Structures are given as structure tokens and as C-alpha cells.
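quick one before i forget lol
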Amino acid sequence: MKTTLYVTYAVSLLLLSACAAGETETLKQARTIQNEILSSIAQLDSSFTSYTNQLNGEISALIADTMLQEDTLLLKTYNISKTNLDNAYLAHAEIDNWKSTMKLLPSMEEIAKGAANPFGEGKTDEEALSGMKKQNEDLAALTKKLSELIHQ
């Protein structure tokens, strides 16, 4: 039984090293950029979730204030918070849309099974790297645009 486990483990290590050895340096760079993109989009999503929760809290507190209808300053603050919340929801929708259209590289295992290149059939590793760099630039632009909403 132990021998079978050791053999299985050894074969798994060989397969893993074979897969790792089969990946070009360019594809490794593309995967690194992809991981950075996934981390950045998760952080952006988290920031907007926190911002939305903060605005919801502010609006709830304003609604609970009995002076809301009589105090023009409170009413103006409520309207600004409500507008900011609406904008935050739109921004969150943009983030979700961007995530749904993002092209992800298939794993080496998926490539071995014949997975299609998300950047187009017959595209090279260099073109995949270029595509990842473009997505990273697009995300940076989206992040800048949406971050301005939080810091208005």
C-alpha cells in the first residue's frame, strides 16, 4: 500500500514538472500578469463593496433622523449620498461586466486537453502576453476612472 502511494506521488511530481517544463517563459509572464489582474480586480471589487456599505449606512442613519424632511442640510446630504450610492452601483456593474469579459489563460492541463486560446486560434504565447498586458492597461484605466467616484 505504501509503495503504491509513493509511486502515485512520484508520478504526480513527474507530471507536474513536465507541465511546468512545457510552459514557455512568455506564457509564465502572461500568467503572472493574469494573477496580478485577478488580484487587482478583487481589490477593486472589495473597495466598492466597502464604499457601497458605507453609503448604505450613511443613508440609513439619515433616513432614521426625524429632522430629514425639515433640515435642508440633512436633505442635501441625503441626496448627495443617494446619488453617490447610485453611482457606486453603476461602478460595481461595470466591474462585474469587465470581469465577465476578461480573457483567462487556460491551465497547462487544459491546454494539453486541447483548450482553445482565449486570444484567438493560432495565436502565439507572445500574442497572449500582449493580450494580458492590454487587459492590465484596460483594468488600470477602469480602476482610475472608478476610484475617482470614491474620492469625489
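fyi Residues 1-20 have pLDDT under 50 and may be disordered.
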